[in-house]
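Researcher: Batch entry, complex prediction.
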Amino acid sequence: MTEEKLNELRQQDTNLRDAIWQDETGRPQMPADLNERLMQRVAAQKEKKPRRIIWPWIAAACVAGVLMIWLTPPKEAPTDVVAENKPKVEQPVMVDEPKAKEAESEALQPEETPIQVEKVKMPMSVPKHETKLLAQETPKVESPETPTTEEVHTDLAVAETAKPQPEPVMLTERDIPVTRPENYRYTPEELALMKKQANEAYLKWVELELEIAKQTMEQTALK
Amino acid sequence: MLERYGRAVFAQVARLVPSFEDAEEVYQDVFVKVFKNINMYDVEQSSLKTWVSHIAYNESISFLRHKTMPVIYYEDREGEAEKLSESEVEATFGHPNPETVQLIRAALKHLPPDERAIITMFYYEEMSLKEIAYVTESIPTTIASKLSRTRKKLCKIIKMLQS
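Model: Structure tokens for the complex:
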């Protein structure tokens, strides 16, 4: 039905128009104070403190927190570098038995050289019976903090090729940190040195005993 | 604005919302919304009266939906009203008769709120189809067909009341 036709009908439908008209006029009128109440309500709403919207701040704080966690470098980073430098001390290295004996014999030679441990060149040999113990005590060395021997070797090789060769660092006994149980074990050189010193001490003790005996014999002879 | 459109808006709301107290509440809600969104009023789209009517209509329908009040009205499920001829409908509404007027008034109460609102906007407020379409968020052709259907429905209700 078109609008023109409907407009015509609007004029023609007198009964319907009258009915609606009567219906509308018969409705209860708007209360006189309704607008006044409305204005009071509007004024009351205006007076109300605008509620503080805090959820954007909470969301922003959450995002900032996540970003901080994301961007903060892991604490393990510096210790990783340290671990790369000294895994040789920590790792129980299996060395051939003849080599260990050779080192032992070298240490027993009379010329006294100060114990100078070269960081890279020092053979980390441990006697066979001790290596077993070490292996038992520290079986799981491949923790995420300490890389495996192969990784360390590769890392060191890469580092050595990349950087200019630094001068060999001379380590003394003081430099070896006694923080791990492996460091309580004596190296073959140390063992050899101790044996040598023990032998010397024993000889000196025997010499002293002989001296004392000689002295007492002379004293008794004089009496 | 309240003086100019207040009565018309209240009548429109009271037409849709049956309870007088609820109509007062909805009326206040309508004008609170009008004051809040007055910046959104577009002169080119509609007149201020139509825009306020649009808000009033939406508020009333929304109130009815949320209230879930039982509204009893006639529903022509079998399409019997559509079977009525146009001449029959014109005869019922066209010939002035006070008795028929009363019957129509009774029949209007059996219409659903939205149809009653449309027919009142057209016959009483004399709004154009375009304006009614704007108020009810519809299109003029839909309003035209709705008006035609409502006329026939009213006629059918009158016939039912007569019988």
